[in-house]
Known about the structure:
The chain is an all-beta fold and 501 residues long. Helices cover 1% and strands 48% of the residues. The chain folds into 2 domains: 2-416, Neuraminidase, CATH 2.120.10.10; 422-500, Immunoglobulin-like. It contains 1 helix and 40 strands. Strands 25, 26, 27, 28 and 29 form a 5-stranded antiparallel beta sheet that branches. It has a 4-stranded antiparallel beta sheet with strand order 2-32-31-30.
Amino acid sequence: xIAQYKIVxxxxxxxxxxxxxxxxxxxxxxxxxxxxxxxxxxxxxxxxHTWKWKRLESSFGVYGDPVIYADELGNFYFCHLAxxxxxxxxxxxxxxxxxxxxxxxxxxxNGTFAGLNGNxxxxxxxxxxxxxxxxxxxxxxxxxxxxxxxxxxxPNDFSRIKIARSINRSESFENAITVSDTTGNCMDDxxxxxxxxxxxxxxxxxxxxxxxxxxxxxxxSLDGGLTWGKDKIAAIQEGGWVLExxxxxxxxxxxxxxxxxxxxxxxxxxxxxxxxxxxxxKGEIKLIYSDNGGDSWSKxxxxxxxxxxxxxxxxxxxxxxxxxxxxxxxxxRNSQYNIATDxxxxxxxxxxxxxxxxxxxxxxxxxxGTKVFFGDYxxxxxxxxxxxxxWTNVENKRMNIQTAILSKELLQNYNQxxxxxxxxxxxxxxxxxxxxxxxNVNAKVEIVLKVKKNNDSIFSKTxxxxxxxYQAKNEILFHTIKGKSTELTxxxxxxxxxxxx
Length: 501
């Protein structure tokens, strides 16, 4: 059956927002908080149908990598990088900042911090709390990567995985502990240890996963984060966590770990999801699970059910009221030239053994190219059958933040309605420019594009193409001379559209 999933623009007015995070309040699911780079704070009191924006502020500075979380009491936490006034970029992110809200995300306090360690740099945080165990309930854990010196190629500078806990609901954090047994370099590449995310077991076990050296590492603590075991390799990440896709500034495949605390059939199951690039299948979304606290892991499961095009930037959530698993990711399966991008949500009702894939966006978009930072991750949250993915979108060459009003019933019983529309993008690159046109419907199309060799030229070159487009052949692409595109004419099923570029 077909229904229209409602798409909501959370932010289409700030400058180039990206890297969004979202969380549904488990104590009151009508309240949802989201964040995006660099200092954007959003909150909703009607399950995400409408949103308000505020600029997040802290005396410790706010500099992106937002992570939103809510504990069982309904307190929201906004975790992010610092911007210490005494230091210059990039060395001003010298700690991880945690700000708290007790009013549903409308207002956050000045916050506290974790990880300050001289001149070392602290990056890419994650936050989780213990909501159930007898021994450690209420503890909050923050994990991240510590660099001796960010982007240093000195072989004596290293990266490592750190974690710190709070036993007073983030009033303060204890000294950070190094979790990783190995180290990585400081170049923010495949050989850097990065992407440390954490999950909590039913007895207060603290689990952590991260990437580096072409592997997904895993470790755990059985005493509330005070001591840690020996790192294990949970999976091999082919090609490493730094991924390259067409017209993306950069893309990473860092892992996200979550635990099922629902009390259902798969209670205490751990899930790790990540992205990787395979030469044959290209971008893929991979998942593994464990039923014994990470001592052993399942075989790799491919979340995307199409091997056409690239899939990338996944994020995962478990609905803790029923144990259903949800994964959001970008997908180019519907693009003839593997460049137009859709958003998909995959869901599993059998503990991650199989996934259904649902197209969420009614029309695709084009990522903004290799010179614009598009973000390192998206987000998704699920509670009581309410599912809210969040992602960076592009409309009229402007990046914005969107969510979809989804439910368990909608995803399981209905598919998205496609817009009878077309989209296009003109990429200005160093060597040659590229024009891409995509149609969602069968169409007869004529394209006329005029390009000047330079801004002052009185002459222009005209590029023309005619085509009949349909599902398997749904795009027109051509490379043009270097220069400035000035005018586009599109005749789409007999109707003429003219654009000044």
